[in-house]
Design a protein that fits this description.
Elements: H1 2-15, H2 21-28, H3 84-106, E1 111-126, E2 131-144, E3 150-161, E4 164-177, E5 182-193, H4 199-204, E6 217-218
């Protein structure tokens, strides 16, 4: 009885030998396939739930790649904003710069109007009514100090002689002036010396004086 047991023990020990690599592979996968080719198996325990996207299959339907949302842990580094302070600071500085430029270029500036002087005077007479007609052409320099073009809507002028208004003129829709540009404008004011100033007819037609000077005020 004891001998038979010892023989069995020896035989079983002699049958034990190290397995070769091919045998290990055949033992793990009898069909010769790679382990990575096994279907996806989800092990749900007490502390886990089934994936709502793939329903535990590990695959999503074809054509829904852009419609499904992947579940990413809240602690994932991809969800943490990077350089937030830098982006916020750069955005604020950019907004301030654009606002400053807009205020600088769009802020309305003054338009300078300077009187150059009388360009020409055309004189005519009415001997019967003893009236002197003067067509006085004046010159103005209008300077646009803005960074955008402006339009001169109208010019109103009057001529005074001895504190009496002897002529008025209003010119509308004159011209447009380019940014930071100056333009010269000529306008004519018709004036009349008559009635209580009829004595100016005698003065203007006096033959002994070659040049007749009259002092008037332009406004």
């Amino acid at each position: 009885m004891g001998k038979s047991l010892s023989l069995l023990a020896k035989r079983s020990c002699s049958d034990e030998r190290p397995l070769q690599d091919d045998e290990v592979t055949d033992g793990e996968d009898g069909d010769g396939k790679d382990v990575s080719q096994f279907p996806y198996v989800e092990f749900t325990g007490r502390d886990s739930v089934t994936c709502p996207t793939c329903q535990g299959t590990g695959r999503i339907p074809r054509g829904q790649e852009n419609q499904l949302v992947a579940l990413i842990p809240y602690s994932d580094q991809r969800l943490r904003p990077r350089r937030t302070k830098l982006y916020v600071t750069a955005s604020v500085l950019l907004c301030l710069l654009l606002s400053s430029l807009a205020v600088f270029f769009l802020f309305p500036r003054t338009i300078d109007v300077s009187y150059v002087g009388v360009k020409s005077v055309f004189v005519s007479y009415d001997q019967e009514k003893r009236i002197v007609y003067l067509n006085i052409t004046n010159t103005l320099n209008i300077t646009n100090n803005n960074y955008y073009s402006v339009e001169v809507a109208n010019i109103t002028a009057q001529v005074q002689f001895a504190k009496t208004v002897i002529g008025k003129s209003r010119i509308s829709n004159i011209t447009a002036i380019s940014p930071l540009d100056m333009q010269q404008i000529d306008y004519t004011v018709p004036t009349v010396l008559a009635e209580e100033m009829s004595y100016m007819y005698d003065y203007c037609t006096l033959q002994t004086i070659k040049v007749h000077n009259i002092v008037v005020m332009m406004q």
